[in-house]
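Reviewer 2 asked us to include a model.

Predict the structure of this chain.
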Amino acid sequence: MVLRVAVAGASGYAGGEVIRLLAQHPDLEVVTVTGHGSVGKRLVDVQPHLASAGDLVLQDTAPEVLAGHDVVFLALPHGASGALAAALGDDVLVVDAGADHRLEDAADWAAFYPGDWHGAWPYGVPELPTAAGKQRDALRGVRRIAAPGCNASTVALALAPAIAAGLVEQHDLVAVLAVGPSGAGRAMRTDLLAAELLGSASAYAVGGTHRHVPEVLQSLAKATGVRGSLSFTPVLVPMARGILATCTARLVPGTTAEAVRAAYEAAYAGERFVRLLPAGSFPAVQHVLGANTIAIGLAVDAAAGRLVAVAAIDNLVKGTAGAAIQSANLALGLDEAAGLPIDGVAP
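Predicted model (structure tokens):
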């Protein structure tokens, strides 16, 4: 039986990517799309690349419009999902691609976001190591899912196996990320104009102010129960989509490169959407574009006594829409990989 899906925020980048991926899903069909300023327009006129959406017309993002579906994906600005989700019944699977239900600590929310905290939902990164095994076990059969922040899941997946295995210290973690502007959403931003991006790169949210910091620390604490510290610096670069994260951690004395690789191989053995590259190889963003895949390369900097993990993802697929669909598949008892590409798009 094909399940009926509504996508709220379908005129944005994340909502559009959910629709693009679901066009190939054997069990989920998008029948309703909602927007804000584009209400009344055909989706294909707002998102011309979504030919599969045909003549679906954008409706108002309201509980009565979203009610009656089997699955609802919320691809809305931060702060807009909480009250809307509360108005939907427990019979519908709701997947929130915004931040409203990611953080488990109300103090973390208050420190990084405006407005009310709406409580935490099961976190949608199935491959994330936890004390009990993997995060996917917390997603089976649930009715509410918090899809991850793209930067946050990239850093967490890059560092979690070493932390879970006790090979690195959880304080003094460092992550520097090259990110494309699509991660900021489709709203008009004067700092994201092409003329300001081309031929340049600029750091932002410097000094521990990025909203994904508490999310990363929360994820990395799932395996050990210890909350560490993280210096997190994103750098805006002129690529439309994608993230390349260079993450380092202080090695526990005596840790070898062989032990590090063994820990990652054990952690991600059998994971369809995690590519651990051969020793000496490191990922490039172009190799994961369009794929629900994270690629990870590892090195040990013996002189500095640090692990270096370099990870690449497509922020709109594995970082957002793909993670949301992968988690929804688990919640619905479907094939976890249904509708999700493992191969990237050739340049």
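Residues 179 and 243 are 5 Å apart (CA to CA). The longest helix spans residues 317-332. We have added this to the supplementary material.
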